[in-house]
């Protein structure tokens, strides 16, 4: 096994900052945004739904480029699981996926962008947690991808477990749960590391590729996406350890239950469609279904859309234009994508996964 030079023990307040954006900057950025948001929260609560309707589009904050979730394609458009959700929201509100606008925000910028109203919703592969639900004036809507944090290394390092990384340098993004989980895990193993803190994901990947750090940590889906874009993907290993649970999902501002419900039930509609076998290819045929659940989902039985303040055909339109959750996963993350990830925990509960839409009734 290769010997990794031992570095000084991890100190939370003393980072090796490879770029200008360090953790203190990140914390100040979020704190300022939180203070601004809380000062005006009472005056603005409950207006997101009406604001979206009035301006005629949904503004979504997504990652600056995580393959499978939100990334520019060869034509310059945005694609990914989170992008599909954004377009599905536009369909729920307006019946038109083009009524969505994408704004790329960094890990440091994301909460401030939502707090300030710069974006309406944050479908940005963000981990949902108690602290984020209770201290930011924001709230998680639900999980659209169950993930875990891992670590990737170059095979030339000749390590098979993260426990062999004592003394290693590790590239990590500031202002993330990833940063904290990494410190907790290494401390629990009584080993040390030196963080190389880089704000932008694309810069982290470049730093890792040229050897500025021994390892790169992030959600395992993010690591798989990064590896698929490296010059020689087979030269890199994602180690077996799971550092944490990472339930990823969209967030909205607290205080607007109608908008919260629109986002939540847009997600659930895509999950329900997969459960009942309704796809983008057969949705018109399924309008003839005698299953009461399918009839309510597709608006054959009226009333469900009215309860949300939208058209009764909202779910039908989502499935027609975007597809169900399984279709979105398949093209963005599954075997039909460059990542070729298995469904795992993100399979329907009927197939042994955790994905479960609440009843549309």
Account of the protein in words:
The chain contains 13 helices and 13 strands. Strands 1, 7, 8, 9, 10, 11 and 12 form a 7-stranded mixed sheet that branches. Strands 2-5 form a two-stranded parallel ribbon. Strands 3-4 form a two-stranded antiparallel sheet. The chain has 361 residues and is an alpha/beta fold. Helix 3 packs antiparallel against helix 12 and helix 9 packs across helix 12. A hairpin with a 5-residue loop joins strand 3 and strand 4. It folds into 3 domains: 108 residues, Periplasmic binding protein-like II (D-Maltodextrin-Binding Protein, domain 2, 3-Layer(aba) Sandwich), CATH 3.40.190.10; 101 residues, Periplasmic binding protein-like II (D-Maltodextrin-Binding Protein, domain 2, 3-Layer(aba) Sandwich), CATH 3.40.190.10; 97 residues, no CATH class. The longest helix has 22 residues.
Radius of gyration: 21 Å
- The residue fraction in helices comes out at 25-40%
Strand content: 5-15%
Structurally, the number of domains stands at 3
Q: Catalogue the unreliable spans.
A: 5-45
What structural category arises from helix and sheet content? alpha/beta
| Full CATH superfamily name of the largest domain | Periplasmic binding protein-like II
Here the CATH topology of the largest domain equals D-Maltodextrin-Binding Protein, domain 2
What do the pLDDT scores average to?
89
CATH-level-2 architecture of the largest domain: 3-Layer(aba) Sandwich
CATH class category name of the largest domain? Alpha Beta
Termini separation: 59 Å
Sheet having the most strands: 7 strands, mixed
Reading the helices and strands in chain order gives EHHEEEHEHHEEEHEHEHEEEHHHHH
**How many DSSP E strands?**
13
């Amino acid at each position: 096994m290769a010997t990794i030079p031992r570095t000084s023990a991890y100190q939370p307040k003393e980072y090796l900052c490879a770029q200008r954006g360090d953790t203190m900057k990140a914390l100040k950025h979020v704190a300022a945004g939180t203070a601004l948001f809380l000062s005006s929260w009472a005056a603005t609560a409950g207006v997101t739904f009406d604001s979206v309707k009035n301006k005629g589009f949904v503004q979504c904050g997504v990652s600056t480029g995580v393959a499978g979730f939100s990334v520019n394609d060869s034509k310059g458009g945005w694609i990914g699981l989170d992008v599909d959700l954004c377009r599905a929201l536009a369909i729920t509100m307006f019946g038109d996926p083009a009524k969505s606008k994408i704004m790329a925000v960094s890990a440091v910028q994301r909460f401030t962008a939502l707090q300030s109203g710069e974006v309406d919703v944050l479908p940005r592969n963000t981990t949902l947690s108690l602290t984020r639900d209770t201290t930011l004036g924001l709230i998680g809507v639900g999980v659209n991808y169950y993930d875990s944090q891992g670590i990737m290394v170059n095979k030339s390092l000749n390590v098979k477990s993260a426990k062999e990384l004592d003394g290693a340098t590790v590239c990590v993004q500031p202002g993330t749960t990833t940063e904290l989980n990494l410190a907790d895990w290494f401390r629990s193993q009584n080993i040390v590391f030196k963080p190389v803190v880089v704000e932008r994901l694309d810069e982290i990947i470049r730093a890792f590729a040229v050897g500025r750090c021994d390892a790169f940590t992030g959600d395992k889906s993010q690591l798989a996406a990064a590896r698929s874009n490296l010059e020689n993907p087979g030269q890199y290993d994602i180690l077996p350890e799971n550092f944490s649970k990472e339930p990823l999902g969209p967030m909205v501002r607290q205080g607007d239950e109608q908008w919260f419900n629109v986002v939540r039930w847009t997600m659930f509609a895509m999950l329900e469609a997969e459960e009942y076998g309704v796809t983008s290819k057969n949705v018109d045929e399924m309008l003839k279904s005698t299953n009461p659940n399918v009839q309510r989902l597709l608006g054959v039985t009226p009333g469900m859309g009215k309860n949300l303040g939208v058209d009764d055909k909202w779910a039908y339109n989502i499935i027609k234009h975007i597809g169900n959750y399984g279709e979105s996963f398949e093209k963005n993350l599954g075997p039909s994508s460059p990542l070729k990830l298995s469904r795992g925990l993100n399979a329907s509960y009927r197939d042994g996964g955790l994905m479960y839409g609440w009843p549309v009734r």
